Amino acid sequence: MRPDMASLHAEPCYFEDLGVGNTFDSPTRTVTEADVVNFACLSADFNRLHVDAEFAKDSPYGQRIAHGLLVLAVMSGLVTRMQLNQHLESSLMGLLDIQCRFPKPTFIGDTLRVRVEVAGKNETSRPDRGVVEFRRQVINQRGEVVVEGAWKLLVRRRPA
């Protein structure tokens, strides 16, 4: 018997369904040497701190670190794999703002996960949408926050 394809799609989640303080965790992913090399080639960012082991040995970190924007890209990918994203996907109307900082470095071999918290919600002048602020933290296997920030997304409201 073939499964009902409609039942395989996640139930939509709307602005009203998100409660301030709700938290969600992603699966994990390990940052590899290939990730750093490929990102350097893609971005043309060959900063020696990322690609030169001898140079990085004498840095405050003692070794190469992953590009901050690579870690943001990994975060984005992990968030898209979360159940939250699967439920929100049809309700997301757009990314409005990103604020982030990098309190700790990410090293090759670090395993990362993302914690997402609904930090705030605001209605807009349009009745079919609202702004949701999500606080995101990328956390390594040592429990250290390596990236943190806020993402504001425009989210559909539940149809009347």
Helical run tally: 5
In total, how many domains does the architecture comprise?
A: 1
- The share of residues in helices is 10-25%
Distance between the termini: 36 Å
Summarize the structure in words.
The protein has 160 residues and is α+β, with helices and mostly antiparallel strands. It has one domain (13-156): Hotdog Thioesterase (Thiol Ester Dehydrase, Chain A, Roll), CATH 3.10.129. The chain is 24% helix and 32% strand. Strands 1, 2, 3, 4, 5 and 6 form a six-stranded antiparallel β-sheet that branches. β5 (129-139) and β6 (145-156) form a beta hairpin. The longest helix is centred in the middle third of the chain and has 13 residues, at 68-80. The radius of gyration is 18 Å and the shape is elongated. 22% of the residues are buried.
Question: Which descriptors would you attach to this protein?
Answer:
single chain; 160 residues; alpha+beta; Thiol Ester Dehydrase, Chain A; six-stranded antiparallel beta sheet; 5 helices; 32% strand; elongated; disordered N terminus
Task: Give a brief rundown of this model.
The protein is an alpha+beta fold. Helix content is 24%, strand content 32%. The chain has helices at residues 33-43, 48-51, 53-57, 68-80, 83-88, and strands at 23-25, 29-30, 92-101, 111-123, 129-139, 145-156.
Topology:
Blueprint: E1 23-25, E2 29-30, H1 33-43, H2 48-51, H3 53-57, H4 68-80, H5 83-88, E3 92-101, E4 111-123, E5 129-139, E6 145-156
Antiparallel strand pairs: 1-4, 2-4, 3-6, 4-5, 5-6
